[in-house]
Design brief:
- By secondary structure, the chain is of the alpha+beta class.
- It has a 4-stranded antiparallel β-sheet with strand order 1-2-4-3.
- α4 runs antiparallel to α5.
- The protein is rod-shaped, with a radius of gyration of 33 Å.
Length: 164
């Protein structure tokens, strides 16, 4: 799970990490991908990091260098990782792919649970706000009623010149 990053609004895995899991060299993984680019048609399968994204990734991981890579790494989305299983056909690659798919599924389930909890919190806040608004409107109605009632004539206080 700690090898899955959130980049461009997608959960992705870096080619170097995938190569390590599949027990192949990163260059061999990328060569296999290069020979099968039709399997990775758009950015929702795989994309190459920009220089800024790559620097940010290195900074997040606290790694000073990634072994002198010449190009920014490729990253693979869940769909891209699934496509890798068709390219890398070793038993190790199949087993690793199954585990990665399970982890992506677990993350998605966790995300859905978190979203549901947040929605419930919002609903509760709205319910409370509705109740508060009802109280405010009740008080406003009471104030309006008081203003609409005519005030009874007041008894004069103090010295009256005609009382003499």
């Amino acid at each position: 799970m700690n090898k899955i990053y959130h980049i461009r609004g997608m959960k992705v895995m870096v080619d170097k990490d995938l190569a390590e899991l599949y027990e192949v060299q990163t260059s061999n993984l990328n060569k296999a991908v290069g020979r099968n680019l039709k399997r990775f048609p758009d950015e929702d399968f795989m994309f190459q990091l920009t220089e800024d994204e790559f620097k940010n990734l290195i900074f997040q991981n606290g790694i000073s260098s990634w072994g002198g890579t010449r190009k920014s790494p490729r990253v693979f989305t869940e769909q891209g990782v699934a496509m890798l299983s068709g390219i890398l056909k070793s038993d190790r690659a199949i087993a690793v792919n199954i585990q990665i798919m399970r982890i992506f599924t677990r993350i998605r389930q966790m995300d859905n649970t978190e979203i549901r909890l947040e929605i419930e919190k919002i609903k509760n806040k709205l319910d409370n706000q509705d109740k508060n608004m009802e109280i405010v409107f009740k008080y406003l109605d009471e104030l309006l009623e008081k203003q609409e009632r005519p005030n009874p004539p007041r008894k004069r206080i103090g010295y009256k010149p005609d009382d003499l």
